[in-house]
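Table S2 (continued). Query chain:
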Amino acid sequence: MSKPIRVLIGVVVVLALAGGGLAYLRLQRPAVTATLVLFGDIDIREVQPAFNDSDHIATMTVQEGASVKRGQLIATLEDTRYAAMLAQAQAQMHAAQQALARLLAGSRPEEIAQARANMQALEVTYRNNEVAARRYAALAPHGGVTRQQSDDAQAAFEAAHQQYEAAREAYLLVVAGPRAEDIAAGRANFEAAQAAVALAQRQFDDTSLYAPSDGVVENRILEPGDIATPSTPVYTIALPNPLWVRAYVPESDLARVRLGTLARVSTDSFPGRVYQGWIGYLSPTAEFTPKTVETPELRTALVYQLRVYVCDARGELRLGMPATVTIDTDWAAPVPAPPGCGPDDAGQR
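Corresponding output:
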C-alpha cells in the first residue's frame, strides 16, 4: 500500500474517532430544560423570650405545642419585692410633690400675720428701751443713776434694736415667699422622684412575660421555681410567618434563577399537594455544598443558598420537613405573585 493511501486512511480514522467522541459527549450531556428542581428543608424563624429582671418564676401559662398570640401573657415572676419597691418610690414621689407645692404656694396669710406681730412686739420693746437709754444717759452726769445703770440701759436698747431688725427681715422674707432657686430645687427633686416611680413601675411590669409575636411554643426551657435572668430564655417560640424552603442552587444554574421568580413546593408528607412560593432571597456569596445535600455530583461543587417563601394556608408544613422546589426558568423577567400569595402576605417587606 502506498504511503499517500496510508496517510489518507489515518486521517479518516482520526476524523471518525473525533466525530464519535463528540457524538458520545453530546449524548451523555444532560439536556437543559426549562424546569429547575432543587431539594431543601422547611425553615422558619424562632424567638426565645426572656425576663428583663431576675427572680423565681411564679407561673408558666402555656405548654409545648400551644399557639400563642402577640401580647399574650406566658409567664410571671415573684413580684413581692418589686411591688414593695414601687410603693416606696410612689411614697417618696408624693412627699416631693407636697414639698414643691408648699414652695409654689408661698407663705400662708397666718404665717405673714405671725411674723408681722412678732416684728411689731419687738419694735415696741426696742422703742421703750431707746427712751430708757436716753433718760439714763441724761441722768448719769448729775448722779441721778450710776454709770453702770446707764451702760445697762444702752446695752438693752441695742439688743432690742437688733432683735427688731431680725424680726423685720424675717417678716419681709415671709412676705416675699420662697426663692426661685428653692423652687427649682424642689421641682428637680419631684422630677427625680417621678423618674424613680417610672423605673420601679417598669421593673414591676417586667415581672410579666408576654409573647413577642404570634407563634407556636416549641420548648419550655424553664419551669416554675427556676431562677430567671435576662440572659436565660424561658420559651422557644416558632414563628410560622414567614415560612420558607432553604435550598441550594449550583453555580452552573445560578443564571437561571432570579429574585421574585415563582416556584412550586411539594413534600413527601402530602403527596400531590403543591404549595405556591417565590424566590425571596439569593445569597451573594458561594459556599461548599452542605452535608445535608445528598446529591453525589454536588458534594464538591460550590453552591448558592436561596430561600423560597411558601404560602401555607393550612398550616401543614413543619420545621425541618424535606421539600422539593420546582422553578420554571423559561421566563424573561420575574413573574408577580398571584393575589393573596406574595412577599407582603408572608410578612416580607
